[in-house]
């Protein structure tokens, strides 16, 4: 666990689990939930209108199935979507991980998320060893590779689970900007 507290460049960015657990989110049934320090988590900021988000659900489902010791949460920032719309999204795209709505965008602002889809990996100690792209399939807005050659999020998860510092700590997310709605 020591390696997750220190990186080769100094300290990794960290979050406060106390602050995180104080942020109230809504699940797709409309009930309040919080994210707590129980295990390694991945937060992926999503929008049901974003084509990249829709396309990445299968990749995220596969990651959740492969790494059951990691908890993935899809976070929908803002007030643009109702719990019913999120529930419909979950059913239509067969999402196998938890979906939560960040109505007040407290979590979004706290973690400085800007884009959907944007992934943030958080260790049990609260370190953020990776944030950014899920992989390099999308090379720009409207531009996609035929073959994915870099699996940034998956590699970072495996590094953290094996107590290694991820080779890539941050990438610039590509997708739809999170708006103020």
What value does the average pLDDT take? 90
Which class best fits the helix and strand makeup? alpha+beta
**Count of helix runs:** 6
CATH topology: Glutaredoxin
Q: Beta fraction of the residues? A: 15-25%
How many structural units, i.e. domains?
1
Which architecture per CATH? 3-Layer(aba) Sandwich
Helix content: 25-40%
- Unreliable spans are 1-10
Q: What is the string of SSEs from the N terminus onward?
A: HHEEEHEHEHEEEEEHE
Biggest beta sheet summary? 7 strands, mixed
Rg over CA atoms: 15 Å
List the helices and strands and how they pair.
Elements lengths: L1 H4 L11 H5 L3 E3 L4 E2 L6 E6 L5 H16 L3 E8 L5 H10 L5 E5 L3 H5 L4 E2 L1 E5 L7 E3 L5 E3 L2 E2 L7 H10 L14 E2 L4
Parallel strand pairs: 3-4, 4-5
Antiparallel strand pairs: 1-2, 1-5, 3-7, 6-11, 7-8, 9-10
What do these coordinates show?
This is AhpC/TSA family protein. One of its GO terms (molecular function) is antioxidant activity. Residues 23-130 form the Alkyl hydroperoxide reductase subunit C/ Thiol specific antioxidant domain. It comes from Pedobacter steynii. This protein has one domain: Glutaredoxin (3-Layer(aba) Sandwich). The chain has 181 residues and is of the alpha+beta class. The protein is built from six helices and eleven strands. The longest helix has 16 residues, at 51-66. It is globular, with a radius of gyration of 15 Å.
Fill in the keyword field for this structure.
antioxidant activity; disordered N terminus; 181 residues; Glutaredoxin; oxidoreductase activity; globular; alpha+beta; 28% helix; AhpC/TSA
